[in-house]
User: Which sequence fits this backbone?
């Protein structure tokens, strides 16, 4: 299989056509790969991508040289470890995405993605090559194709089938959370909260306000992980939509989502912390996300990470999110640090989720 694989480097995602190279998820599309080239909140210093053909479908494997990722650092802090890296690393793709495994549709693709990715990481002077946002089966497949990677548990992500109707989805919940969600949604409506749906370029005039709310929400829980260029960059990704909760003409919260190939992914959230309890904004947006999914024939809602107990109560199924790290050269100190991080994340998630 490896002999049939054709690979070529491209200096930007602009060099490949979107249609053939778009993957199964919004964050494995050519548009997302191109958008992340301009992101600075994660401090992307350089980028180069590998176009793979000859397998089941063409795939584009992104490589970003990053010298600081706020999300990765947040996971280190959650795991209770000091920073793993002393220099830049290469992410494929960004940890900010929901799904990973670009290049993973065949063993030949995986082999080429690791081998050539490590060569590029070495040329850039990076400490490691990091394949982010994998599920357990993907970790096994990548490890079988190219042993030597260090698996690190990062988080737990949640999604659920829509079931074709609001009632079908709500039926996944037990009676108490189902009634409470409906009650909070109705109270939001009674308070004058209304939904505004913005897609593509319509989102741009509202992104400064969304950025302010998203940063406030991020800082409430950890440190800020966002930058305004991030939200502007991904407006052109297929299915990008901003579900805005408005009250008296002002944004009091919003979910930045992507509806792509039957899956509605709730990726970024911005909430007015001072008015969230009063206006029931979070519940309003969760319920309206369900209504939007049903109206647009989505088959699955991906509710993302964190807020584990809430999502488990409201009918979402959790699955572990992994990263597979290939150190560049012999780096026993990096391997040791990754093992401590993995152990810390296992302990954290065992305490905070229904994970067995």
Assistant:
């Amino acid at each position: 299989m490896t002999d049939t694989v054709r690979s070529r480097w491209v200096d930007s995602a602009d060099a490949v056509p979107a249609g053939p190279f778009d993957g199964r998820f919004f964050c494995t599309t050519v548009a997302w790969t191109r958008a992340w080239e301009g992101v600075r909140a994660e401090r992307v210093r350089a980028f180069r991508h590998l176009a793979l053909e000859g397998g089941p479908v063409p795939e584009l494997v992104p490589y970003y040289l990053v010298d600081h990722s706020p999300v990765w650092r947040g996971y280190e802090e959650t795991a209770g470890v000091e920073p793993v890296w002393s220099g830049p690393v290469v992410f494929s793709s960004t940890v900010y995405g929901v799904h990973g495994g670009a290049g993973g549709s065949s063993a030949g693709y995986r082999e080429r993605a690791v081998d050539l990715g490590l060569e590029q990481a070495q040329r850039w002077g990076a400490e490691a090559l990091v394949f982010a946002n994998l599920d357990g089966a993907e970790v096994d497949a990548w490890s079988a194709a190219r042993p030597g990677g260090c698996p690190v548990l990062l988080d737990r992500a949640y999604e659920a089938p829509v079931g074709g109707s609001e009632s079908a989805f709500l039926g996944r919940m037990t009676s108490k959370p189902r009634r409470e969600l409906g009650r909070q949604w109705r109270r939001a409506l009674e308070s004058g909260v209304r939904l505004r749906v913005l897609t593509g370029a319509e989102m741009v005039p509202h992104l400064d306000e969304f950025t302010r709310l998203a940063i406030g929400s991020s800082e409430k829980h950890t440190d800020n992980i966002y930058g305004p260029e991030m939200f502007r960059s991904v407006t052109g990704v297929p299915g990008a939509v901003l579900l805005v909760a408005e009250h008296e003409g002002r944004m009091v919260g919003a979910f930045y989502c992507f509806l792509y190939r039957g899956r509605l992914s709730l990726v970024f959230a911005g909430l007015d912390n001072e008015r969230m309890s009063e206006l029931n904004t979070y519940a309003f947006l969760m319920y309206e996300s369900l209504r939007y999914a049903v109206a647009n024939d989505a088959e699955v809602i991906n509710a993302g990470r964190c807020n584990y107990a809430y999502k488990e109560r409201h009918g979402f199924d959790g699955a572990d999110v992994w990263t597979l790290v290939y150190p560049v050269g012999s780096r026993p100190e990096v391997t040791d640090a990754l093992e401590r991080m993995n152990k810390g994340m296992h302990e954290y998630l065992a305490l905070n989720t229904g994970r067995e």
Notes: The radius of gyration is 20 Å. The mean pLDDT is 95. The chain is about 40% helix and 30% strand. The first helix runs from residue 18 to 21.
